[in-house]
Design goal:
The complex is a heterodimer of chains A (about 270) and B (about 180). By secondary structure, chain A is an alpha+beta fold. Chain A has five helices and nine strands, in the order H-H-H-E-E-E-E-H-E-E-E-E-E-H. In chain B, the strands form two sheets. A five-stranded antiparallel sheet of chain B has the order 2-3-7-5-6, with no helix packed on it. Chain B has a two-stranded antiparallel sheet with strand order 4-8. Chain B has a domain of about 120 residues: Immunoglobulin-like. Chain B is elongated. By secondary structure, chain B is α+β, with helices and mostly antiparallel strands. The chains are: A alpha+beta (about 270), B alpha+beta (about 180).
């Protein structure tokens, strides 16, 4: 059986009438606003694409050749000083970084989630966490302990104590419910490198916990965040990713304007017809 | 304005709004990716234990009209305490809602085996906090306690036609992190 094709078309004069009506509705101001927003968003999308490309490249296993590597006494001392200051191991050369912030996987007994049962008031449990942080000179490390949705009430009474083991510095000590803002501490060193942060995290059910906390379950997420990404070293060793972002954003902007111009011209021709 | 124009315009606006929302999400994601680097330790679970005691399955240890007390009479009744908690517990016994004239006459002794936990009148034992058993109760242990009711010979006729009613209560607390046997 032959298919019948039904074509509905609008006469040219009617289309132009509709367009005129629409143009009246969309004022010049609205058009300008839409254009500006569209341009800004296009730029950001381009930036996002760049970030995703860079991030995906970071996880790939690839062979890189780094010619003319030199080890001098001065650089060794500098790296060692930076690490020992924070109690970490010797810093790796700047070009060796694969991740900017990651849980260290050398010791399987570390970095484990808590799974504790039958806790009574006064009980404490401690786990150790080791993080590798790659940065140039100065970063801020933020720590949060937040309950999962639905576990807020059972979780808020638990006390959390985070200690930076090598120095004994207490980063946070208080209840989960009382953690209104992330606990933070600064990391600094004179030359780019990787620091190892070794934490002891202790969770306590305080003695004051009453019967309302019997047979309850608390679920917490512990998060470390490095703020100000610009201080982190990209794994490629590229020290100026911002420039790359700007170039790509500018290209995106240019392409957008070209397309916009073509469309406008075409529209003008249609109207003339 | 015709209906067709209106529909077209609405479609265009809806499309623009959807595009703006999607692109805004992309914008937020890219901004976050550029500013932060995060690692998380997920699903940290903390479950608490419980303290639960079963006293004689809720049955009274002595029924009304079961015995007729007179000077010199002694009645011995056993009841049990079972630890249904998830940890060993200390426990203490006390009386509550004591009423009747015999409350000041009958001498009551509560014993854990041969060890006397407490001794006194029902009135004296009302909300008494010192009747703590020496040995803690293990998880799921069921221990029998002996209650001895004695009508003193010296009481005379003071308790004629008198009665006694009371609630026998047990309070338990975990032994963990509690070396001083604190009950509150």
């Amino acid at each position: 059986m032959r298919k019948r094709r039904i074509v509905c078309s609008v006469p040219a004069d009617r289309r132009s009438v509709e367009r005129v009506a629409m143009d009246r509705i969309l004022s010049k101001k609205t058009k300008t606003t839409i254009v500006v927003i569209a341009v800004a968003l296009a730029v950001m999308v381009a930036a996002l694409v760049v970030v995703l490309i860079i991030k995906s490249g970071r996880l790939q296993s690839d062979v890189s050749v780094l010619p003319e590597n030199r080890i001098s006494r001065a650089s060794a001392f500098r790296s060692a000083f930076g690490s020992l200051f924070l109690g970490g191991k010797l810093a790796a050369p700047a070009d060796d970084f694969e991740l900017s912030l990651a849980l260290n996987s050398d010791n399987p007994e570390e970095n484990q989630s808590f799974d504790v049962s039958n806790m009574f008031p006064g009980d404490s449990v401690t786990r150790n966490y080791r993080l590798d942080v790659s940065f140039r000179q100065k970063v801020e490390i933020l720590f949060t302990a937040e309950p999962y949705p639905g576990y807020e009430q059972a979780s808020e009474i638990f006390q959390v104590k985070l200690v930076l083991v090598p120095t004994g510095e207490v980063i946070y000590e208080g209840t989960v419910g009382g953690m209104s803002a992330p606990a933070s501490h600064l990391l600094e060193h004179s030359a780019p490198g990787t620091e190892q942060l070794y934490y002891a995290l202790t969770v306590t059910l305080p003695k004051e916990a009453g019967n309302e906390y019997q047979e309850t379950e608390a679920r917490l997420r512990f998060t470390w965040t490095v703020e100000d990404r610009s201080e982190l070293i990209p794994p490629t060793g590229d020290s100026s990713p911002v420039v790359l972002y700007i170039v790509i954003a500018a290209c995106a902007l240019g392409v957008f304007w070209v397309i916009w111009g073509i469309l406008k011209k075409k529209r003008g021709e249609d109207e003339d017809e | 304005m015709s209906k067709t124009v209106k529909t077209k315009l609405n479609r265009k606006i809806s499309g623009a709004v959807v595009a703006i929302i999607l692109l805004s999400l992309c914008l937020a994601a890219s901004a976050f990716a550029l500013t932060y680097e995060t690692v998380s330790v997920e699903s940290n679970i903390f479950r608490t234990g419980k303290v639960k005691i079963n006293i004689n399955d809720g049955a009274p240890i002595i029924d009304s009209g079961e015995y007729l007390f007179e000077p010199g009479v002694t009645v011995v009744k056993d009841f049990f305490i079972e630890n249904q908690s998830t940890w060993d517990v200390y426990f203490r016994l006390y009386f509550d809602n004591v009423s009747g004239d015999l409350a000041d006459i009958l001498e009551i002794t509560l014993k854990d085996g041969d060890k006397v936990i407490v001794n006194g009148t029902a009135r004296g034992l009302e909300n008494f906090t010192g009747a703590v058993a020496e040995e803690p109760l293990s998880v799921m242990e069921k221990r029998y306690i002996t209650a001895v009711f004695h009508y003193p010979e010296t009481a005379g006729n003071a308790g004629m036609n008198a009665t006694l009613a009371f609630d026998l209560c047990v309070q338990a607390v975990q032994t963990k992190n509690n070396p001083d046997k604190e009950f509150s």
